[in-house]
């Protein structure tokens, strides 16, 4: 709310300057976001002058030639204003004056006539938007004086962010009331203007029927006849409205806005000619239409509250007037309305039709139900004083029951002990009563087990609904900054810290040590992007996204990470290792949530839990980008570049799989144990169920692994790792990544266990029994499968198999390779003898040669 | 020749020997078959018995000493020879290193962890919650009645089934009360969402919620706890300003401003910056968590992690956090 200092000081005039007032209001919960100081410096050089003569400019139809007296001399000035005429006092910017916009007034010739200064409009002086004519000053203004002495200047204003609980402070009156309590110790008294009752001068009134008393339990109206709307509102009223951010329109509308800003009660003025019969406050019929003041046509539903007459709807109750019944230039008789509306109904209609008005803003935050009559009296007074006319009696429609339930708030018991116990500091009885009574509460002492007060709540404070709320009133007026600091006292007990955050953070430390940097992406991506990466999946879409780019919840981290790579590549980064951790969102039962949504649209399912028919699991993905081999001739199996050569450090599939393997130690898991890598080219075993999104199509068909988590009963795929499919580089957002190899690992972290405590196993100092072995195996047999076959073929399998060498040569039969292995048996009671080992290996080789295409290399 | 003269000569010869050959010559000259000491020892038997034993002891002592000194010198010479050879093997170890550089935590997570560590050490347990939430945990259980204007304080992202993206980590409050008994001290960090997008607002941001519920928790405890936290976080005594505010789920409610020093065009200025919101847990919220407000009281606070990170690192643009430019990220390694 924009609060005019000048207006506020009419109601309460403390000695404190506006900075101090702003600070004190902010401390007490009425946050001043900004102090607006209108600059009036430029007015210092603008003086009062009188037009002595005004005649047509000889060479221009629209210009006038004026003789002007500035109190010391006569000047000749060319002026284009239609109202420039002899005898009026005007604002003169003499030669040398600098007006806003660095506009310096110079002596000049305009169409051949000398002009020694400028006669100013209100707009040119930045007083208002009025630019139709020059500013006319009062007839008694003294020539040569500064015009500011005769003008209503814009006031300093405070931009206050009123919180939704303080609807009572959306007015000068409300803020003055709070300020009076804050400055009570300085004995600052409120000085509100007298609010008289207007005695009726005629008997005409409109009958009022309340047909929706729950939404509108009280409606008041008065006919004022014979007003003259040909004049504008007085300058002081226009200025206060402008200071408050309200545009002056005509006297009738200005008066209602003025009273709303002053007292907090929104009012409406109808043109009496447009009303037929009387007022019916009713709910709309379905499909009923109403054209609003802003020309928009509303198609209404049965919950919308209407102000109607006996024939037609007139206005959206408490929100906006209708176009047809509004005040026109030739309106002479008006019907002034002020009513009590149920905040919930206003909130609903405003939200549904996306309307935003000053009236609705106040009504949904609650307006004191005892205000309407006072507001109508005040509006009548101002209207008659400025536009003439005769007031009739105030007629009303009231539903006692509903009105009481809105205006009466249950009284509260405030125990003296509770205040100190809850706030942590004590206030004297005198402080307590003076603060609360100043705010409008009524305190009655109670004598029971614990002394305290029965506190009656004023009509305008429905937000005070518990003793804790009364404590807040005490604390904020007393001053939060005066309150001491203490530390909680209670039983200290060690906490069991949930492992997820700490394991996540261990993953962060692991990956950063391995050269990966963490990114944080938005959890939403575009629907198109989601469908491009995961065509099988219907993504979860937001009902009200910020833009189509951010409309679908991400089903995986990979699209974001790849975009980050492309972003950095465009900034001359050629090698990049990134990772991200965070929730990903996947509808369960592919696509069915959307279909179900259609059914549920009308009856939103309140019983839906956060994780019903969707999964939001914690994922980890890491990616590495390297220029494709050959492009930079980087190290590898061929020529080895010195590590001092400026080039991207090597990262390849082996590095990726090493990182993945090592990472599992963070959960105490071993590759080959609880976690198994299934190689893309291994014969499919179909042992695992995919619990995560299937992203194998994003990987190179042969150069990736599936990461399987083995449970007692079933096994699940928890991730993938490998070289990404070159097809991804055809995606438009990744086109810059052509020429790069992209490696990635995706992993669902929710399926991983808390790291177990390692159970100590005794070890022996006896030497291991070793056996070196060279086998000739088919080229297509991968090592992981060979190891499995060997293990299966042993009667006592070795504790460890180490790879010594993979050898390919024309000396071997075509289609075969040689693999050299070191087998190790750990001693338990005694080391195996050479003969025992030989027997074991010999038996194993016999099985290999019998059942597989594998031979011992001689 | 007397013994002291030989001793002196011997020491001179050893120290003069600057290579292994020269030292070997000294060894031969004194200790060899025809060496001076050997000769003298041979001549012992010709001495009268009275002189023989004392002269014998002195000569033997000298022989032992000489052997040891020559051996020591030999060790020294061999070491020097090795070092001289090694010095020939030069490498430019000042060449720039292009290895695998350490990556970096995202600053949001570094700061989140820093805050978490402070509260964990004070006995607050970390809990997490879902980001797609129900209206109940995000609003209703937190004393935002339906059709209440306080809801317009949160620009909420909705799904068509009525669920939403949590607008604050305060969702952790009632979720924690449902599963834990007082004394209850939790923090709940995480991502939060609001439909607001400009230079100073991001549709996704990070918050950390904290809550303590016990018997006799007081408003002054909240002030003290937050002051201690802020001091610990910044590593120095900071000035805080508590002012009245409004959150439906706390009563009394407060905004906390931090007095911050800003250097603008060489001049130091101080400014109050809003850093967190807090208050005493509203009795209706305790009831949502099945706790009796006449028995228990508590405080809660919520702070923006981005804001803390911006102050901590001097970052001046919120958007940098989500651009994931490696030139930004690598500064936090």
Task: Please outline the helices and strands.
The complex is a heterodimer of chains A (858) and B (333).
Chain A: E1 2-4, H1 5-11, H2 18-27, E2 31-36, E3 46-56, E4 64-69, E5 74-79, E6 89-93, E7 98-99, E8 103-104, E9 108-110, E10 113-115, E11 118-119, E12 136-137, E13 157-161, H3 172-182, E14 208-210, E15 218-225, H4 235-243, H5 251-263, E16 268-271, E17 279-283, E18 289-291, E19 297-299, E20 305-308, E21 313-316, E22 320-321, E23 334-340, H6 343-352, H7 358-364, H8 371-387, E24 390-398, H9 400-407, E25 412-415, H10 416-423, H11 429-438, E26 442-446, E27 452-456, H12 467-478, H13 499-513, E28 517-518, E29 524-525, H14 527-533, E30 552-553, H15 558-569, E31 576-587, H16 592-600, E32 614-627, H17 653-663, E33 675-679, E34 688-690, E35 699-710, E36 715-724, E37 740-748, E38 769-778, H18 783-793, E39 800-807, E40 816-825, H19 834-851, E41 855-856
Parallel strand pairs in A: 14-17, 28-31, 34-36
Antiparallel strand pairs in A: 1-13, 2-13, 3-4, 3-6, 4-5, 6-11, 6-12, 7-8, 9-10, 15-23, 15-24, 16-23, 17-20, 18-19, 20-21, 21-22, 25-27, 26-27, 29-30, 31-32, 32-37, 33-35, 35-36, 36-37, 38-40, 38-41, 39-40
Helix pairs in contact in A: 4-5, 5-8, 11-12
Chain B: H1 3-16, H2 20-31, H3 36-42, H4 49-88, H5 107-121, E1 125-126, E2 132-133, H6 135-138, E3 164-165, H7 171-179, E4 184-193, E5 204-214, H8 219-234, E6 240-247, E7 250-264, E8 267-281, H9 283-288, E9 297-304, H10 305-313, H11 320-323, H12 326-329
Parallel strand pairs in B: 1-4
Antiparallel strand pairs in B: 2-3, 4-5, 5-9, 6-7, 7-8, 8-9
